[in-house]
Amino acid sequence: MELRILSKPELKSLYETEMKRAFPPNELKPLKSMEDMRDTDRYEPLGMFQDGELLGYAMVWTEPDIPLALLDYLGTVEGRRGAGLGTALLGLLAARYGDSRPIFGEAERDNSSDPEERALQSRRLDFYFRNGFRYAGYDCALFGVHYETLIMGGENIDAQELMRAHQTIYKRQIPPTHYRRFVQIPLGEGEQPNSAAQWREE
What we know:
Aminopeptidase, single chain, 8-stranded mixed β-sheet, about 35% helix
């Protein structure tokens, strides 16, 4: 298996056929935002291929002056889930970025009032913990969704350093008025995520 950066037509096809099905609208960035960041070397839309077939994908935020990579989205294509491909994909990501650029990300907190949804949230968190991620020391909320911040590698990076990088990445992409309303990094203990309508850039 190999990882490679998706072309713009490949990214568009993946977004329309896979990502729109896999992620709820309030968690999915506009395609144009991904394309614009890709074109300025700040975003790596990666596909995992075997014999030319796309099996999985990872969208990774890579600001040139920040020595961390933010795992924005991770998924396997429909019909190929449950075969260990997610674990293989994280292994390829670890090899790609290595200790020189630790990977961090946001996984939805397992606090849904719906038992079925909460079980799914717990499985997602367990998946990351089983594959080398650890809790980074703080929660966050993005556009009304409560996340735990996780990191793989970078044992010498403390929560404050990571938090500053986390804030900077979002401040560079999101208009200040949206950032103030919809980005809570960190989310304080007992604090609730701000309610947010579906975000779409005009």
